[in-house]
Amino acid sequence: MMKTDRKITVAFAEDDFLVAEMIQGTLIGSGYELIGQAEDGLQIVELVKSLRPDIVLMDINLPGIDGIEATAQIQAECPTPVIVLTAYDEPSLIQKATKAGANAFLVKPLNGRELDRAISISMARFDEMRELRRLNEELISANQDLEAFSYTVAHDLKTPINLIIGFADLLTDARARLSGDKQKEYLDTMAVSARKMLKIVESLLLMAQVRGMEVPKEPVEMEYVILEVKNRLMLQISERQAVIDSPERWPLVLSHAPWLEEVWANYMSNALTYGGAPCRISLGFDDLGSGMLRLWIRDNGPGIDPAEQAGIFIPFQKGSRIKARGHGLGLSIVQRIVDKLGGEVGVDSELGKGSTFWFTLPLA
Fold first, then answer.
1. Residue 96: alpha-carbon gap to chain centroid
2. Which of 22, 102, 341, 345 is deepest in the core (most CB within 10 A)?
């Protein structure tokens, strides 16, 4: 048996009674812990989903669904190392089983030495496959971000750049006879466009930073974070004449204060932009139990169409409401930060009844 601090747990599928007795005896005699036994393909899939063994021994010829289909279902629903049991060493069969997700093969009848070797190989290959799958998913995600970044640079920065170039050309054109007021108007427009470009670039840099960094999580006092966000958005709050209600006391959360400030700043800026008139915003929290807290911000705006809610946090995907006024990065940043902090994000909204954006974090 493999050297480990605990017994390796095993489940197996075999429809022949005598062969099943032999497998059971070999497993127990070799020091493994047998936690499940099935006689057909569907049963072994359900056993693996409920018992989560370390390894599965899978006969090929099973009633219901065969061992190859059962292996494929296990890898799709609850990935687990699988050793296929065969009566004959057939290359075509091995190829099909490998494609379905099997990690090793044993020819019946079993013996303890071959079983130990197969289990060691299967678990090692499974770990390698899982790591390759993780790296592949990271690569796909990085490529998607790169594509989205290219779109943002090409699309969202194009308008403010064109405005700045256009007004700069007008201001430097000797033939243009512009009044002082007109020159100031053009310069103000150029400044607004430049600030918009800067905000987009800062958002993109923050997304890249969050993706590549691991930060220490520590107890954070929410009152100070909320105060910083209000100070940061003071001008926008004043312009909207917004009333913001929030609890006097907040529970401590396990987080990273600078990132938590970005979450609240994006949520609050969104509420200020799309809230009603007069703009009224409420902040709060709910204890979800199991050490998790749900934090939320509620606006009195027009609400979000249900068809748009599912994709509203997807990076660089914009709902029509957001597309009209923003560059669509804020909620993507929230999603990425909260994922890194071990929580979830979401929105509850009905048309005409405002929106409640929320996220969860562990309590300190």
1. 32
2. 102
Dihedral angle of Cα 150, 151, 156, 157, to the nearest 10 degrees: 30
Structure tokens at 88: 């004959």
Contact 263, 321 (CB under 8 A): no
Cβ-contact 58, 33 below 8 angstroms: no
Band of pLDDT at residue 49, cut at 50, 70 and 90: very high
Q: Alpha-carbon distance 170 to 246, whole Å?
A: 48
Instruction: Give the SS3 label for residue 352.
Output: coil
Residue 46 CA to residue 210 CA, distance in Å, equals: 38
The two three-digit tokens of residue 101, written as one number: 């997700």
Q: Kindly give, in sequence order, each residue whose CB lies less than 8 Å from that of residue 50, ignoring residues fewer than 6 positions away.
A: none
Any idea what the Cα angle at residue 10 is, between residues 8 and 14, rounded to 5°? 160
* Domains, the chain: 9-132 (3.40.50.2300), 156-213 (no CATH), 215-364 (3.30.565.10)
- For the chain, count helices (H), then strands (E): 13, 12
Rounded to whole angstroms, how far apart are CA atoms 183 and 173? 12
HSE-CB of 253 using CA atoms within 13 angstroms: 28
With CA atoms as reference, report the closest residue to 309 among 293, 321, 298. 321
Residue 47 · residue 34 · CB < 8 Å: no
pLDDT single digits (tens) 63-109: 989 999 999 999 999 999 999 988 776 778 888 888 888 888 888 88
Q: How far is it, in rounded angstroms, from Cα 311 to Cα 302?
A: 18
Q: Residue 261 in 3-state DSSP? A: helix
155-173 confidence digits (pLDDT tens): 667 778 888 888 888 888 8
Q: How far apart are CA 302 and CA 139, in angstroms?
A: 38
pLDDT given for residue 321 in this prediction: 40
User: With contact defined as beta carbons under 8 Å apart, do 108 and 85 qualify?
Assistant: yes
Q: How far apart are CA 324 and CA 331, in angstroms?
A: 15
Q: Per residue in 14-46, is it b (16+ CB within 10 Å) or e — as a string?
A: bbeeebbeebeebbeebebebebbbbbbbbbbe
Residues 19, 110: Cα–Cα separation, whole Å = 9
